[in-house]
Amino acid sequence: MGLFSGIKKQLLKVIEWEDQSRNTIVQKFEYDDRYAIMKGSQLIVRPSQAAIFVYQGSVCDVFTEGIWKLEEGSTPILTKLANWKYAFENPKQVDVYFVNLRQFTQMKWGTPNPIMMRDKDFGMIRISGHGEYSFHVMKPDLFMRECFGTIRSFRTEDIQEHLKSIVLAELTDLMGECQIPALDLAANYIELGDTARNKAAARFRALGLDIDQILIRNLKLPEAVEQAMDKRTTLGVFNGAMDQYAQYEAVGAMRDAAKNGNGAAGTFASMGMGLTAGATIGRQFAGGLNDAMEPTKKCAKCGATLKASAKFCPECGERVDDAGAKVACPKCGQPVDAAAKFCPHCGEPMKKTCRKCGQAVGTNVKFCPNCGEKL
Predict the structure, then answer these.
(1) How many whole angstroms from its chain centre is CA 120?
(2) I need a labelling partner for 87 at 20 to 30 A (CA). Which of 47, 104, 156, 163 fits?
(3) What is the pLDDT of residues 224-233, one digit of tens each?
(4) What are the tens digits of pLDDT across the range 187-204?
(5) In 10 A of CB 151, how many CB atoms?
(6) How far apart are CA 218 and CA 225, in angstroms?
(7) Domain region containing 312
(8) Domain closes at, from 197, 225, 253
(9) φ, ψ of residue 193 in degrees (nearest 5)
(10) 300-339: b or e for each residue (b if 16 or more CB lie within 10 Å)?
(11) Phi and psi of 326, rounded to 5°?
């Protein structure tokens, strides 16, 4: 026979739960056997809480935020099941569960294995990622039936792995369908997260939960793809100046070869490679300089710029060295006799000479290639 057998149970005056944790979703209200929840007990439900009354294994009434005085009519389901109006004479054992309705944030997700996706630039690639998601209890009674049952305490870690698997399943499906180029993924983190949240919402609501957001912190591409992207970025920077980029790469190769030389043979080999590369670069610079300073003329038919020694236009095939042939004025573009020294239309000299040494130069040259005089 128990210690309190035959003793009339006392009225439990206040029923409340003060949550001091950050991860408790459900907590059962514990009270001594000397007390009973009777008509006249006061229930305090704080903001972001709900209280569930359970009698003989059945969910009865759900109370939301506020101060409730338990009496006949305030708990219609419990009144019917437990014959509440006779509670003082024959008190019933009622279980009370408090449910935390606040938003649980910073729940981590990460891909245990890379996600396969088809990219239009790089073909089939694998992507790894990580981020966070947040959720809250939307329907306490449904959440009780589907998840925690009669467990005295239910925390985020008790359901975290299951929720993370839902988030990863939706993200994996989305990444396979979205067809966003790998180069544009970083610009679509928010849109991808919102779409994945909308797709996962139905599966969360089936548990009595609602998912508030999915955040993508980073999507990492394979190292080979990142290197290809870096190369493409470099080429984009040198767009229109590929000759300079090729020269830069040649100098880098020469420097690396010099560093990796092995003994005397390696040193001489590196020197030979360096001399060869240097000569090649020198010829490229010299060729470009000569091309820039060589006198030019324009085709009278199509206006293309030609070398002064050219006999035919490479653009249209027009012959330009016949007697009486016409060339275009470099200033106004009007056809002028090839032998003319000045344009009869604007007076521009058809040939340019250095005033210091008399060297004939192109009309677009700014310095004399013979003496360096500024023209």
Answers:
(1) 17
(2) 47
(3) 777 776 776 6
(4) 999 999 999 999 999 999
(5) 14
(6) 16
(7) 292-375
(8) 225
(9) -65, -40
(10) bbeebebeeebeebeeeebebeeeebbbbbbeeeebbebe
(11) -105, 145
**Are 108 and 94 found together in one domain?**
no
Other C-beta atoms within 10 Å of 125: how many? 17
Report helix, strand or coil for 9.
coil
Choose the most confident range, by mean pLDDT, from 21-25, 66-70, 321-325, 328-332: 21-25
20-41 burial code (b ≥16 CB/10 A, e <16): eeeebbbbbbeeeeeebbbbeb
Which residue, among 278, 266, 133, 281, has the nearest Cα to 209 in the 3D structure?
A: 133
The two structure tokens encoding residue 171: 């993200």
What's 109's domain CATH number? 3.30.479.30
Tokens of 292: 């820039």
Which of 91-105, 134-148, 283-297 ranks highest by mean pLDDT?
Answer: 134-148
In a domain, 166, yes or no: yes
CA atoms within 13 A on the CB side of 340: 22
> How far, in whole angstroms, is CA 302 from its chain's centroid?
51
Residues 6 or more apart from 1 whose CB is under 8 A from it? none
Buried b (16+ CB within 10 A) or exposed e, 194-206: ebbbebbeebbee
DSSP single-letter state for residue 146:
I
pLDDT of residue 169: 94
The pTM assigned to this predicted structure is 0.58
Residues 111 and 216 in one domain: yes
Distance of alpha carbon 52 from alpha carbon 40, whole angstroms: 18
Same domain as 112, residue 95: no
Is residue 149 included in any domain, yes or no? Answer: no
Q: Are 175 and 215 found together in one domain? A: yes
Domain count, the chain: 3
List for the chain the helix, strand, coil content (%; round to 5). Answer: 35, 25, 40
* Residue ending a domain, choose from 202, 225, 248: 225
**How many Cα atoms occupy the beta-carbon half-sphere of 142 within 13 Å?**
11
- For residue 27, CA distances in Å to 13, 43, 91, 149 come to 19, 15, 23, 11
- Cα–Cα distance, 324 to 319 (Å, whole number): 11
**What backbone phi and psi angles, to 5 degrees, belong to 311?**
-105, -20
Looking at the fold, whether 108 and 96 belong to one and the same domain comes out as: no
